[in-house]
Design brief:
Order of helices and strands: HEEHHHHHHHEEEHHEHHHHEEH
Strand content: under 5%
Helix content: 40-55%
Radius of gyration: 20 Å
Structural class: mainly alpha
Strand order of the largest sheet: 1-2
Largest sheet: 2 strands, antiparallel
């Protein structure tokens, strides 16, 4: 059902809500015996989750954001203790990917070392990367072959860690596995899956993003040109006309009875597509990519989100699939394009309206309209939970006060703001 929210909330109120959410987050942590702090995906889960997507590694960056934002050592101490539990998980973890495995864990550990000087965390990150490199089979690490679970994400993580050789090693297989399409190229995202995905998380644009970023950083023109061809495939699939940009989730449609044909968030929609186009704009030095990013934004802002227009439409507040991911792009555009803050305020007001606040703090629950009850247990981490939401709210507060718009920890798949592009 559509709902209206008040947009006159102040940045002080948003900051206070963020502090409440951090209090709930810290209260949800588990004391890992001899190994610091750990988070489970939801508070009722039994097993600690060290991953960047849904667990402790994804909580660490927001603790570093909070430490810097509030100048409060409680958050820095918590980040150090969280790094110990992630470090303890490195040697037994079998997944190598950015969002589900060692590459993401190493990313978080390296961030702790860079911000708080934690040599033990740096050593654990190095061990993680050694394991990742050793398990490469010459083409891939797993059945997944995209940004979230495969080579593209590992390449981005390696580049962020300063290992350009491993980043290139991860991206070169795309040169020989690309499938020609009428407008460009695309790839098999999951071994044996007939569907071809098109967007940032699991699809062609995520691979193109990694190819462009690694190619530019390493002087590999062939990788950059392959990125251009992959992006061309996605652009040719636009069904929104000349003013917008909206590409189907996948072709043939993956799980058509469960997955909507069109999405709007970071993972499978124009929010994430715009981030890829922002990067291509800078790598290729071509304003046509900014035009495509603008068309993505037109579609997002005219879609009806963040209202829940129907069951299944916009049931998520998180960074991956929901409102917080759109807020990240809104703030990027405010900084780069000089956008007015009206839509960002609408997104923030919606997040405020959906928060549960009580003596334990603040948290967000997503909705699964096909389940009863439909309100899901709150998540802790980056993708669907408090950590990803708080990270974007704190940045919105800083921008609202005219303060530093940068994140403490730069995410591998979100381009830094390019102030030379300000209109």
């Amino acid at each position: 059902m559509a709902t209206e929210v008040a947009t006159n909330i102040t940045v002080d109120e948003v900051e206070a809500l963020s502090a409440d959410a951090l209090r709930w987050l810290l209260g949800s942590a588990r004391e890992a015996e001899g190994a610091g702090l750990a988070w489970t995906t939801t508070p009722s889960d039994d097993e600690p989750d060290p991953r960047l997507y849904s667990g402790t590694a994804g909580v660490i960056p927001v603790l570093l954001e909070a430490w810097r934002h509030f100048d409060d050592d409680r958050y820095g101490d918590a980040a150090l203790r969280a790094a110990r539990s992630v470090s303890a998980a490195v040697d037994g973890w079998e997944d190598d990917s950015l969002y589900g495995g060692l590459a993401g864990m190493a990313f978080a550990l390296r961030a702790v070392h860079e911000e708080l000087h934690a040599p033990d965390a740096a050593a654990a990150a190095d061990r993680a990367w050694e394991r990742v490199r050793a398990r490469f089979d010459g083409t891939r690490w797993s059945n997944w072959f995209e940004l979230m679970g495969g080579n593209a994400g590992i390449g981005l993580g390696a580049l962020a860690a300063g290992d350009a050789d491993l980043a290139v090693l991860a991206l070169e297989p795309y040169l020989r596995t690309a499938e020609q399409s009428p407008a460009g190229v695309h790839w098999e995202a999951l071994a044996g899956r007939a569907s071809r995905f098109h967007h940032l998380s699991h699809g062609t644009l995520g691979i193109a993003y990694a190819l462009a970023r690694v190619g530019r950083a390493t002087g590999r023109a062939d990788l950059v040109e392959l990125a251009r061809a992959g992006a061309a495939d996605a652009v040719a699939r636009n069904e929104a006309g000349p003013d917008g940009f909206l590409v189907p989730h996948s072709d043939p449609q993956d799980h058509p009875g469960r997955t909507e044909r069109f999405s709007y968030g970071w993972c499978h929609g124009p929010t994430g597509d715009a981030q890829a186009f922002r990067l291509l704009r800078d790598v290729l030095d071509d304003p046509a990519w900014q035009t495509l990013a603008d068309r993505c934004w037109h579609t997002v802002t005219h879609s009806g989100l963040p209202r829940r227009l129907r069951p299944g439409f916009w049931d998520n507040s998180g960074r991956c699939c929901g409102t917080a991911g759109v807020l990240a792009l809104a703030c990027d555009r405010m900084a780069e394009q000089g956008d007015q803050p009206d839509f960002a305020r609408l997104l923030v007001a919606d997040l405020v309206s959906r928060a549960t606040v009580d003596t334990d703090g603040a948290r967000w629950s997503n909705v699964e309209h096909r389940a009863t009850p439909s309100t899901l247990e709150p998540h802790t981490g980056w993708a669907m939970g408090n950590a990803g939401i708080v990270r974007e709210l704190l940045r919105f507060v800083r921008m609202g006060r005219g303060a530093d718009l940068r994140y403490v920890v730069t995410w591998p798949d979100q381009p830094v703001v390019n102030r030379t592009r300000t209109r």
